[in-house]
Design goal:
The complex is a heterotrimer of chains A (about 325), B (about 350) and C (about 425). Chain A has about 325 residues and is an alpha/beta fold. Chain A has eleven helices and 14 strands. In chain A, the strands form three sheets. A seven-stranded mixed sheet of chain A has the order 3-2-4-5-7-6-12, with helices on both faces. In chain A, strands 9-11-10-13-14 form a five-stranded mixed sheet, sandwiched between helices. Chain A has a two-stranded antiparallel ribbon with strand order 1-8. The N and C termini of chain A lie far apart (about 50 Å). With about 350 residues, chain B is an alpha/beta fold. Chain B has a six-stranded parallel sheet with strand order 2-1-3-4-8-7, with helices on both faces. A two-stranded antiparallel ribbon of chain B has the order 5-6. With about 425 residues, chain C is an alpha+beta fold. In chain C, strand 10 and strand 11 form a beta hairpin. In chain C, helix 2 runs parallel beside helix 3 and helix 6 crosses helix 8. Classes of the chains: A alpha/beta (about 325), B alpha/beta (about 350), C alpha+beta (about 425). Chains A and C meet through loops of A and helix 2 and helix 3 of C.
């Protein structure tokens, strides 16, 4: 019998622990990105890793996002398991040709005769006052590219288990790390463990309404649910954890149970992943259980503003979720 | 430094004539036969296309046979290449099976990529051909990663990364050459310079005479060679190979040549004159190499023509066979996108 | 061996090419790579090279022939070689150019004009499923959701109020109150069930549902709860006609639309109504709400159904803007493209039946409004003018108002104001 040692660590430490454990276990795994070595990563995720693994496996690069993505893609094609860090998710715009036209396509385009096992770690989201070019959530773009998987963990436990699963996956996996989650603390086992990529989790059970949320919206939805519990509204929170592949079954089962669903994400509402979730629900068995229209709560269709008040107003906050969930739960009652 | 490519009429010339003595006879024969196979393959591809037997478009490398053959002839069998949309030549030179390749061109299940890739994306991964990229310059950053993996595994293998003249104006070219140079990666960057990015002549899109001068920005050697002289290409690339293999890092070789055909099938040649095309046809790299071999008495005319005819027959047979292969089935296509 | 010269496929989507000219004569010697002929495609004219060395023979393609790709159009023969036998009787298949384009057009045009049936009741999916399971007729219910949407709770409430279904062999004891199941809003489905229907052959039975049902319920509600005052007067439209003629062309240039009399009326109503707030009001929960905004409903008939598209804040729109708004709304109303929001929330309605030749009529107030204006046809009428009898285009206006909100004098003042404005339309400026 193994003894499980679980302690409280931050999301950031959980990401680092996953990286360190995988790099110890598999010499093909390496970290590549701008300032990941001596500097320890822009957010400090790889702090201390250079000392253990050296410059070759904790590889500082020129400021060349296209070449970084290409370096990861090419190394993955050769059977290595690179983990590429892009400093901000926004900078993926410069890497996109390599990720979308190369990494995502090569397996299929070459007749299934190669695979690209790589991870793209992307600090995402707003709330840090970093304004329009350092705050985006671009998951919907990549979900629409067959060949790439997209994962967006919301807790330290999920971050570690999903990152290990992403590194071991034989495909390009975009791994979104919300910057505001880095300091979130939670119980994480010391041992290495995997969370399968296509497994949503019911983060809170409830009867009246389902909130489907991922990344930063999960803690916000949970907080909203506590507030509404005081009003007698019982909310279930489902976190898909991975957007592609998507565990549709867990979401549909929850909506069948509650009959009402609110979808929340930070990315702008128009063309956001919420539309896909809404369609999955509407096309499923859950349709016949719906007792109100499916509602979405997303970011405003604006670039993320700098000013704190404007920035807060641009993306759903706890109070927005409370208002939307309350109205939806009461509709027709 | 200006590279002047001579017209070939009666006498063949090569600036690397000494290789006729240094290289084994079989190697020279191999080079000529591959060049002929490329020419016949491209002509067959064109013929199949105008007969409506090909679904997509294609980019023919007629006139550029010396570049792909001369460079790949320098490689060891385990070495690797990554190339681009005008890639039939590299694929043949790297040793592709002509029938499997033709089957891919025709979109058949038994093609190299099971009909999923087509003319622009032929890859033969076990054969060390890591595939053609259709986005201009898109293969260059990937090449950095391949070379990085070779370096991290302390491999003796090297990689040839091919791209066109147009690709050297992409940002990815700059990022990649800088990164590869900084890390001294075992890669040789080869520019298949056919002088036109679709319709734009190099003189209209860059303010330098030779693309190889760009190497100076990365602190690596750069050389422009007569890309219609297969032996000159061989000599230049071999030197770059040695540098890459010994851990000194990449080089940039600019193979100056010319494409006889349009950019793709919809090209109306509005950007160049018939006279210009005609002039370049008189610089044919295959006729030139044949003349060089015969004039130096390395081969007789008969030997040369026997190799030529063997190439033609091989291509004809490949096409005939490939046309009988079954089409792929759309069933379960979505299951192939991700690796298990 | 003879080498075929074919109409080449030079483009991914090319199916035919138009032959332009031969650059060599039949019987002439050509070299492989020599320019041989020219074709025209959708994109451009292209020169094609000879596929072989030899003599051009068996030339079939002529100028302007439209030839399918891969069709043989000539041969290149080696010296002394004869034409292949199969080629001799074969004629080039040509398709005339106009016919080709016609075929293309026919292929691309597909019928998209499918009318969308309005859903008969607004109901959530689960309520619909539940009602089906419980065999409840959803038209019997009024939902508590937004705009009367029926939710699960409504179905369950209705079900608990129903008498148990009598199954054969099951005795029901006692009396169940049917009254309690009656919703508060008058339901058209239960109007006068006792009166025997005529003994006539039925042509069709049209369920009272959807828009018809909503109109029915609203009108019953209005007619039987709001005591209507109906007042009429006639307006001399001479000046209004003159105004319309004056602005017709400039506004057509400005808006692309012809100014209608309804638009001029709308402008007049929007100008006058702020001075008569009790006619732009709603009765709600024992209060009269006087509206600042004039959301003007324009009653429109669409396939036997009354639709009232709403021009919001009509008081802030000039004539040109009203013309444009009305053209857009009526057009989309007829095409069933209006959003529900655009058919709701009016504060005053104009109903014009003049185009049908109706000279005067009274309308029923469109709740929750408190007044409506019925507009008749302009009729040339002999009137006394400066001691003489002259013919004048007279139009009868009938205002109906909810007597709970306003009195006869209020309505009279409104109509008088409207008359002055229409007879002196320059006041609209």
């Amino acid at each position: 019998m193994t003894t499980q040692t679980t302690r409280e660590i931050t999301y950031l430490e959980a990401v680092r622990e996953a990286l360190v454990q995988e790099m110890r276990a598999d010499k093909e795994v390496f970290l590549i990105g701008e300032d990941v070595g001596t500097y320890g990563g822009a957010f400090g995720v790889s702090k201390g890793m250079l000392e253990e693994f050296g410059h070759e496996r904790v590889r500082d690069t020129p400021i060349s996002e296209a070449a970084i993505a290409g370096a990861a893609t090419g190394a993955a094609l050769m059977g290595m398991r690179p983990v590429m860090e892009v400093m901000f998710m926004d900078f993926l715009t410069i890497s996109t040709n390599q990720l979308v036209n190369q990494a995502a396509k090569m397996r299929f385009m070459f007749g299934g005769k190669c695979s690209i096992p790589m991870v793209i770690r992307a600090p995402s989201g707003s709330g840090t006052g970093a304004a329009a070019q350092h705050s985006q959530s671009l998951e919907a773009w990549f979900v629409n590219v067959p060949g790439i998987k997209v994962v967006a963990p919301s807790s330290p436990y999920d971050a570690k288990g999903l990152l290990i699963a992403a590194i071991r996956d034989n495909n390009p996996v975009l791994f979104m790390e919300h910057k505001l989650l880095y300091r979130l603390k939670g119980p994480v086992p010391e041992e290495s463990y995997c969370i399968p990529l296509q497994s949503a989790e019911v983060k809170r059970e409830g009867r009246d309404l389902t909130i489907v949320a991922y990344s930063i919206m999960v803690p916000r939805a949970l907080e909203a649910a506590e507030k509404l519990a005081a009003e007698g509204i019982d909310i279930e929170v489902v976190d898909p954890r991975s957007l592609n592949p998507l565990d549709e079954e867990t979401i549909i089962r929850s909506v069948c149970k509650t009959g009402r669903v609110l979808i929340a994400h930070e990315a702008p509402l128009t063309g956001g992943f919420g539309g896909e979730l809404a369609a999955v629900i509407a096309e499923s068995e859950a349709f016949d259980y719906l007792d109100a229209p499916i509602r979405r709560l997303g970011g405003l269709n604006v670039p993320i503003p700098y000013n704190r008040t404007l920035e807060r107003a641009a993306v759903p906050q706890v109070e927005d979720i409370v208002t939307a969930a309350r109205a939806l739960a009461q509709e027709g009652k | 430094m200006t590279v002047v490519i001579p017209e070939v009429d009666e006498v063949g010339t090569s600036s690397s004539q000494h290789l006729l003595v240094e290289l084994p006879h079989e190697k020279l024969a191999w080079m000529l036969q591959r060049m002929c196979e490329i020419r016949y393959f491209e002509e067959k591809a064109e013929d199949l296309y105008i007969r409506g037997l090909v679904h997509g478009t294609m980019h023919l490398s007629i006139g550029q046979e010396a570049g792909s053959v001369g460079s790949i002839a320098t490689l060891r069998p385990e070495d690797l290449i990554i190339h681009h949309h005008r890639g039939h030549g590299h694929t043949i030179a790297k040793g592709a099976n002509l029938t499997t390749m033709m089957a891919e061109f025709l979109g058949r299940e038994s093609g190299y990529c099971r009909g999923r890739g087509g003319s622009m994306h032929i890859a033969d991964i076990p054969g060390g051909n890591l595939g053609a990229t259709g986005v201009v310059g898109g293969g260059i950053p990937t090449a950095v990663g391949i070379a990085l993996a070779l370096q991290m595994h302390r491999s003796e293998q090297i990689l040839l990364s091919y791209f066109g003249d147009g690709a050297t104006n992409e940002g990815e070219f700059h990022e990649s050459l800088n990164m590869a140079s900084t890390w001294k990666l075992p890669v040789v960057f080869i520019c298949d310079n056919n002088q036109y990015g679709m319709s734009m002549h190099v003189s209209k899109v860059m303010n330098i005479e030779n693309i190889s001068t760009r190497a100076a920005s990365y602190g690596i050697p750069g050389k422009t060679v007569d890309g219609n002289d297969v032996l000159a290409v061989y000599e230049a690339v071999l030197e770059a190979d040695e540098r890459a293999r010994s851990g000194e890092g990449p080089s940039l070789i600019d193979c100056l040549s010319y494409r006889w055909r349009g950019h793709s099938k919809s090209d109306r040649n509005l950007y160049r004159t018939a006279q210009e095309i005609d002039e370049w046809k008189h610089k044919c790299p295959i006729r030139r190499f044949k003349n060089v071999l015969v004039d130096a008495a390395v081969m007789t005319t008969d030997e040369v023509e026997t190799l030529d005819q063997a190439a033609k027959m091989a291509v004809d047979r490949a096409a005939e066979e490939a046309l009988t292969f079954p089409e792929p089935s759309p069933e379960n296509m979505e299951d192939e996108v991700y690796a298990p | 061996m003879a080498t075929e010269v074919i109409m080449p496929k030079v483009d991914m989507v090319m199916e035919t090419g138009t032959f332009v000219e031969w650059l060599k004569k039949e019987g002439e010697h050509v070299n492989k790579g020599d320019p041989l002929f020219v074709i025209d495609t959708d994109k451009a004219a292209i020169e094609l090279e000879s596929p072989a060395d030899g003599i051009l023979a068996g030339v079939k393609a002529r100028i302007n022939d439209v030839i399918p790709v891969t069709e043989i159009i000539a041969y290149i023969l080696a010296p002394g070689e004869a034409l292949p036998v199969k080629s001799v009787p074969q004629q080039v298949v040509t398709i005339s150019a106009p016919a080709r384009s016609k075929v293309r057009a026919a292929e691309t045009v597909t019928s998209v004009s499918k009318t969308i049936e309005p859903r008969d009741v607004r109901v959530t999916p689960v309520a619909r499923r539940l009602a089906k399971e419980l065999q409840i007729d959803l038209t019997q219910l009024t939902g508590r959701g937004p705009r009367g949407r029926i939710h699960k709770a409504d179905v369950l409430a209705f079900q608990t109020q129903q008498p148990p279904v009598e199954h054969p062999g099951v005795l029901t004891v006692g009396v169940t109150s049917v009254e309690s199941a009656t919703p508060m809003i008058p339901a058209i489905t239960r109007v006068a069930p006792q009166i025997a229907l005529p003994d006539a052959r039925r042509k069709q039975v049209v369920p009272v549902a959807g828009a018809r049902k909503i109109i029915a319920e609203r009108m019953v509600h209005s007619a039987f709860t709001a005591p209507h005052i109906n007042l009429s007067l006639k307006v001399d439209m001479t000046e209004a006609i003159r105004l319309r003629e004056r602005v017709l062309e400039p506004l057509k240039i400005q808006t692309g639309q012809r100014v209608s009399f309804t638009a001029i009326l709308a402008r007049a109503v929007a100008t006058v109504l702020p001075h008569h707030p009790y006619l732009n009001a709603s009765l709600s929960d024992g209060n009269i709400i006087l509206w600042e905004d004039i959301h003007l409903g324009i009653a429109t008939s669409v396939e036997e159904n009354l639709i009232v598209p709403v021009i919001r804040e009509a008081q802030n729109r000039n004539l040109g803007q009203l013309v444009m708004a009305m053209a857009d709304l009526t057009d989309r109303a007829r095409n069933r493209r209006l959003t529900p929001a655009e058919m709701m929330g009016s504060t005053f309605t104009i109903s014009n039946l003049g185009m049908f030749g109706i000279e005067s009529f009274t309308a029923i107030i469109n709740p929750p409004e408190s007044a409506i204006l019925a507009v008749g046809r302009m009729v040339d009428t002999p009137v006394a003018h400066e001691g003489q009898i002259v013919l004048r285009p007279m139009m009868e206006l009938t205002a109906s108002a909810d007597h709970r909100v306003s009195d006869g004098a209020t309505v009279a003042r409104f109509l008088a104001d409207l008359k002055v404005t229409l007879e002196n339309p320059y006041l609209l400026i």
